[in-house]
Every structure is written in structure tokens, then in C-alpha cells.
TrEMBL record:
UniProt lineage: Bacteria, Bacillati, Actinomycetota, Actinomycetes, Micromonosporales
UniProt keywords, alphabetically: Membrane, Transmembrane, Transmembrane helix
Recorded superkingdom: Bacteria
Protein name per the record: DUF4190 domain-containing protein
Organism from which the protein derives: Plantactinospora sonchi
Transmembrane segments: 26-54, 80-104
Length: 117
């Protein structure tokens, strides 16, 4: 005997309505700030905060059992935060290479004993 299609799942009247997580929007905003300020090394702070907040938001969304939405904004914010971190770290590496090259080119003075005349 074939099983009939039950249709969409019915909600219990006391179930809460799905609501968008405010933390997911905050993660997106912080990730965007991190991306925009990443080249100036100022993106490290908002990117770090975005990553910590994203971790919290994921835990809350998992614990809500599907009644807390906003996973797309959360994912986008995390990607932007990672991009901001990569830009900031790339800037730090480039600046340190330039600094080492500049240090290598500067004269250090006389490196041998003066001759007797």
C-alpha cells in the first residue's frame, strides 16, 4: 500500500515564528568594514570581532532548532572578514619585506680597521 503525500508540515500553534538573527547582520557589517579597511591594517579588529560573533551566532542558530534564520548573511560576513584578514596580513608582509630591503641598503659605516698612513 503506497504512502500518501502528507503535504507541508503543519506547525504547532505554540511554535515561535522564524526570525532573522541580528548577529548575522552585525557579522556582515563587520566583515564589510574589515574588507574595506584591510589594506590599511585596520581590518584586523573588525574581522576578529566578526569571526567571534559568527561563532556565537552559529551556536544560537543551531540551538534554536531552525527558528533563527540568517545563515546566508552569516556566511557572507565570514567570507568578507576572512578577505579583510588576508588583505591586512598581505599588507603586513609587504611592509616587512620593504622594511628589510630598505634596512639592507642603508650603509652601516666602516666595517674594517682604518689603515695606517
Amino acid at each position: 500500500m503506497p504512502v500518501a503525500d502528507a503535504g507541508p508540515a503543519l506547525r504547532h500553534p505554540l511554535d515561535p515564528d522564524p526570525v532573522r538573527s541580528t548577529k548575522s547582520r552585525a557579522v556582515f557589517a563587520l566583515g564589510l568594514v574589515a574588507l574595506l579597511t584591510g589594506l590599511f591594517v585596520g581590518g584586523l579588529v573588525p574581522a576578529t570581532i566578526a569571526m567571534l560573533l559568527a561563532r556565537e551566532a552559529r551556536r544560537e542558530a543551531y540551538a534554536s532548532g531552525g527558528y533563527l534564520t540568517g545563515a546566508v548573511w552569516l556566511r557572507r560576513g565570514e567570507r568578507l572578514a576572512w578577505a579583510g584578514l588576508v588583505l591586512a596580513l598581505s599588507t603586513l608582509v609587504a611592509l616587512s619585506v620593504v622594511g628589510v630591503l630598505h634596512l639592507a641598503e642603508t650603509p652601516t659605516g666602516q666595517d674594517f680597521a682604518p689603515g695606517i698612513d
